[in-house]
Amino acid sequence: MAGETDDLDALVARLRSADAATRVDAAERLCRAGPAAVRAAVALVRACADTDDQVREWSAAALEELGPPPPGSTAQLAELAAGADPLAAYWAITLLGRSGQDAAAAVPTLAECLGADDPAVAERAAWALSKMGPAAAAARDQLEQAAGSSNPRLARLARAALDGSG
C-alpha cells in the first residue's frame, strides 16, 4: 500500500513538470490506474487546463473513471469550477456533483457557473446542483433563470435541480 501511495504522489508531482512529455506520461499512467487514482482527482482537474492537448485528454480520460473525489477537496474543486478554463471547470463541477450533498458548500459557486459562457459548463452546473438535494435551494433564483434558458438541455437540467431541491 505505501508503495502505491508513493507512486501516486510521484505521478501527481510529475503532472507539474515543466516537460510536456513527462506530464503526458503521468496523466496517462493515472488514467490507466483507474479508480485507484482518486486521490489525484484535484491534480487531474488542474491538468485539464494544461497547455498540452495530450495532457488534457489523458487527464479527462482519467477523471471519467473516478467516482466521488476524496473528502476535503470541495473547496479546491469549487475554486477550479470558478476558474477561466472551461475543461477544468467542467471536470471540477462533475466531481462536485459526484460528491452530492457532501459538496453542499459549493452550491454558491455552482449557481454562478449556471451563467457560464461555455454551455457545457452551465449544463454541468445544473446537473451538479440536481445532485445536491435540499442544499440546491440556495441556488433557486439562478436555477429558475436557467430553467427559462433558450438552451433546452440547460433548461431541462435546471428544472430537474429545482424539482430535487425541495
Walkthrough of the structure:
- The protein has 166 residues and is an all-alpha fold.
- It folds into two domains: 1-67, Leucine-rich Repeat Variant (Alpha Horseshoe); 93-166, Leucine-rich Repeat Variant, CATH 1.25.10.
- The chain contains ten helices and no strands.
- α3 (41-47) runs antiparallel to α4 (53-64), α5 (74-81) runs antiparallel to α6 (86-99) and α9 runs antiparallel to α10 (152-164).
- It is elongated, with a radius of gyration of 16 Å.
- 46% of the residues are buried.
- The mean pLDDT is 95.
Give a quick precis of the structure:
The chain is mainly α. It is built from ten helices and no strands.
Instruction: Provide the low-confidence segments as ranges.
Output: none
CATH class of the largest domain: Mainly Alpha
Q: Give the biggest beta sheet.
A: none
Which bin fits the share of residues in helices? 55-70%
Which CATH-level-2 architecture of the largest domain?
Alpha Horseshoe
Order of helices and strands: HHHHHHHHHH
Morphology call: elongated
> By helix and strand content, what is the structural category?
mainly alpha
SS field, number of helical segments: 10
- Ends apart, CA distance between termini: 43 Å
Strand content: under 5%
What number is the mean pLDDT?
Answer: 95
Beta strand count: 0
CATH topology of the largest domain: Leucine-rich Repeat Variant
Give the total of domains: 2
Radius of gyration, Cα only, in angstroms? 16 Å
